[in-house]
Amino acid sequence: MSSTRSADPIHASDIQLAQARISSTIAQTPLQYCPRLSEATGARVYLKREDLQDVRSYKIRGAMNAVSQLSAEDRAAGIVAASAGNHAQGVAYACRTMGIQGKIFVPRQTPAQKRDRIRVHGGDAVELVVTGDSFDEAAQAARADAAARGAVVVEPFDNRSTIVGQGTVAAEVLSQLTVEGKALDTIVVPVGGAGLLSGVLSYVADMAPRTAVIGVEPRGAASLQAAIRNDGPVTLDSVDPFVDGAAVKRLGQANWEIVEANLGRLHAMDVSEGAVCTEMLDLYQNEGIIAEPAGALSVAALRELRFKPGEVVVCIVSGGNNDVLRYNEIMERSLVHRGLKHYFLVSFPQEPGQLRHFLEEVLGPGDDITRFEYLKRNNRETGTALVGLQLSAAADLEPLLGRMEKSRLDCRQLHPGSPEYEFLI
């Protein structure tokens, strides 16, 4: 059994009713002016800090709105949900606070930090099941379990009540800007299944029709753009799981109907996973914001956008559930994205002293070897080696490649996306 999904249009009044319904349990998050990003873009950039929710994500809005409207019969039947992690925390929170038993399915890619927080928020009210290699596989398992037990599925994005709840983010943004005497010119929204995007689109269509909406998805999981190209949701063959909060293979049908009705105000784009990592680090270093990968999507997009001087731009920082154990990978991906980290396969001749030759004649003064691994281990200084180099500046790469070409050594650069590169990150 699944909670009802409706194709009825969503209006600002629906979202305002949801705002009143969940206001006692949902914090109004700050709308924070960002001098750094404003100076970089020429716009007046604000960050909507949904990472400061009790569950560190806007997902609590949709979960609480959906669960709070279930009948007594549905609550008694129990709740089932599938999630990459943040929706699960919202559902877990709702189960514990409302005294409802829940069963939550997450894919194996879900970071340990998110799994731990699901258990904390749900307590004894929630059973956590880890299954499948993607959100979509976990969702299949959740729906099968709900059908077998007669439980109620609380969908993370493809559901009217969930969408209405997520739309309260836009309602808060417009209210907060009005208090400051400002109008919203552009809002930048991270996109996975498009629950947040469709809620925002629904609200601004009624309340701020001149506002532009930019939907940003990870390059490795661009289901929104695939739906736009194909005039409807399509299932991607695969997704890059790194931006786990937005790694969804297929846009929701209810979400698509709203997107389709608002294509005139929507600009869809994607950003690379490396760009996301760079912005996660910048947010931490400059604003002290701990953003998860999906939470940094909207801000990462600013580097590729152009705004009119002084226009008001709001980026939704959608979540802050990031596992500290991921920071080595985040740093690595950022360095590669910025052109500061490169990998090479170097074939050393079967002669002594070739490693010294590489160090003294090929490397520049600012080059730092961060990884050196012989792929043939029968002789310490012969054979092919994997060499990872960190440069002091991206411009140092061309001189390095020139020295490699003139060298007696056979040096082959590995490029992101190549089969040999996959095991490095």
Descriptive report:
The chain folds into 3 domains: 12-58 and 160-330, Rossmann fold, CATH 3.40.50.1100; 79-150, Rossmann fold; 339-423, Alpha-Beta Plaits (2-Layer Sandwich). The protein has 17 helices and 14 strands. It has helices at 12-22, 35-41, 59-68, 72-77, 86-98, 112-122, 135-149, 160-166, 168-179, 195-207, 223-229, 253-261, 273-287, 297-300, 327-337, 354-362, 397-406; strands at residues 31-33, 44-49, 79-82, 102-106, 126-130, 152-153, 186-190, 212-218, 266-271, 312-317, 341-348, 368-374, 383-390, 410-414. The strands form 3 sheets. A 6-stranded mixed beta sheet has the order 1-2-10-7-8-9, sandwiched between helices. It has a 4-stranded parallel beta sheet with strand order 5-4-3-6, sandwiched between helices. Helix 3 packs across helix 8 (160-166), helix 8 (160-166) packs across helix 10 (195-207) and helix 9 packs across helix 10. The chain is globular, with a radius of gyration of 24 Å. The model is unreliable at 1-6 (pLDDT under 50).
Brief rundown of the structure:
The protein has 425 residues and is an alpha/beta fold.
- Backbone structural class: alpha/beta
CATH class category of the largest domain: Alpha Beta
Rg, alpha carbons: 24 Å
Total count of domains: 3
Oligomer kind: single chain
| Shape-level CATH architecture of the largest domain | 3-Layer(aba) Sandwich
The 3D shape can be described as globular
Distance between the termini: 41 Å
